[in-house]
Every structure is written in C-alpha cells, then in structure tokens.
C-alpha cells in the first residue's frame, strides 16, 4: 500500500477512535440527571477505569495506530504523530478530571454517611427481659432448690430404653406408637417426658437422690388452646430409705403453698401411670377464686397440677437401685400450663408465637 494511502487510513482510524470515545463520554455523562450517591460514584469509577483500558490501554485501538507512525511517509509522519498524541492527551485529561471528580463525590458521600452528630440525643436501648416460661421455670426451681432438690438436665433425643423401657412402658403401649411419639431413627426419639433424666441421674448418682428435671419435651399433639407438640415440663424425684406416699403429699403441698399462697389446698385422685405404683393425679384449689368456682378453674374450684405416685420397682431396678432398701416418689407438671394459668392466658399458643408486643408485658 502506498505510504500516502496508509497515512490517510491512519487519520480516518484515529478520528473514528476519537468519535467512539466522544460517544461513550456522552452516554456516560447522560446519567448526571440522577442524584449521585456513594454507590453511583463507585460504579462510575469502575466504568471510567474500563474506558481508560478500552481507549488508552496497551491493547487499545489507539495503541495499534501509534505503531503505524513508523510506516508513514517522513514528510507527514510528524503531523500524524501529533494527531495521535493530541487525541491521547485529551482523552487522558478528560478521564483524569472525571476520576478526580468522582473520587471527591465518593469521599463526601462516605464522610456524610459516617458522620456522627454528637448533639443528637442517643437512642435509649430497650431493656431485655426473660420469657414468661423462663420466669415460671425459675420460680419452680427456686422452690425445690430451697427444699434440698438438685436441678438436672440431659439430652432431648433418647433411646427407646430411656424413653420407654426404663420407665416400665412395655412394647405395644399406646405411648410408643408413632402417632404419639416423634421418632428420629430406629430406636431413637425425641423425649416425650423429662422422666428420662431421672433414669440418667439415678444411674449416675445412685441412691439416695433428690432432684427435679425441668426441660422441653415433644409429643404428637395438634396445637390448640391447651396443647402444643413442644412444651415444657418439670419432673421431680426423691429416692431414699423409708420414703412413703406421705412424703409425696407433704412435698407437693409445700410446693403449691409457696407458689400460689399458704391458703392453697391439694387433693389426690387415684390414677394410673406405668412408672409409678400407686399413682395419683394432683389438684390444687384455684388461686383465683379460692375454690368457689371461676372461669380459670371452670367453676370446679380445682385446677389439675399433674401426675404423681410412688416410683415403680421396675424403674428403680432399671437404674440399678436396690428396691429392698430404697423407695421413692415422683411427680410431673407442665410449666407452660402453670404459666398460662397464673397469667390467666386463654390460649397456651401465645407463649410460643414470639410476639414481642405480648412478651414484653412480663417482667
């Protein structure tokens, strides 16, 4: 190709590169109508960096045209070189000026964002507080600890031995049905009562032992105002020489006196539980009406506390306790149901819905 044609082609290419640059700049500056904030400035800086690489980088079209200078006619080489240099300087100047502007905008935005006005009143943090179930659990624990009981806790996934066999619940019992118990894998289930903790405690401590086991238990119940598939329970156990039903009655009577008041009465109704013999349901006189009948006690004057009884010899044997030397009693009550009655809640599900507007009422 003749050198003059090469020169003319170089001029046209350099001019097209400059025109393309101007179009990109026009598009870039067309976004100025929107408010420039920190995130805009950051993205614009990245875009400017891409424009610099595109038009002034080592592999840019302008760099390729610069290499053609040596192929030009000596008479026009200087003019072509000056044109390339002029476009390069103008583009570099514009990009540098814009980058400086965007960096200033970004710096101001970050300064404004991080600025702290020490004259503005501070936000007063809202004090936290315990959940009503936790409050009730602590009250129950405090009472039994003052009576000489230890507080025990253990795993929530148990084997069939601890959940059923050691508690004298035989094969085929309805409590072992998958419709009542949450099985995880073969031979393992979520504990359906905290009585499992008693077995662990007796195996670990031996006899005598006096303990309570508050904790979370699981049963396949349909949620309603009085039932929940996950709820809180406290089991009590006392094993020693010469323990009788009279000790059980005296312990629970003292418990309800301290929890509901000294005028509260207790009564025991015969019942059946696989892990106690004899067994009894325990009621206490309504703390609201004193036994005359009200909405809380459903006009009966009595409220159910829970189940109780003398520990079945088979349960003691499962924990390697000598039944000819030791006897014991056990009892269990629902923490959340007791909590709902004390706070006069119509629906036990309110305690598990985590509505802060509801929970912040309790201190």
Mean pLDDT: 83
Q: Total helix count?
A: 11
SSE string, helix = H, strand = E? HHHHHEEHEHEEHEEEHEHH
Strand content range: 15-25%
Oligomer: single chain
Beta-strand segment tally: 9
Rg from alpha-carbon coordinates: 41 Å
Helix content: 40-55%
Topology:
Layout: H1 3-29, H2 38-56, H3 61-66, H4 74-114, H5 132-146, E1 150-151, E2 157-159, H6 160-163, E3 188-190, H7 195-205, E4 209-218, E5 230-240, H8 245-260, E6 266-273, E7 276-285, E8 302-311, H9 313-318, E9 327-334, H10 335-342, H11 356-359
Parallel strand pairs: 1-4
Antiparallel strand pairs: 2-3, 4-5, 5-9, 6-7, 7-8, 8-9
If you had to describe this structure to a student in words, what would you say it looks like?
By secondary structure, this protein is α+β, with helices and mostly antiparallel strands. The protein is 43% helix and 18% strand. Strands 1-4-5-9-8-7-6 form a seven-stranded mixed sheet, sandwiched between helices. Strands 2-3 form a two-stranded antiparallel sheet. A hairpin with a 2-residue loop joins β6 and β7. α1 runs parallel beside α4 and α5 crosses α10. The termini are far apart.
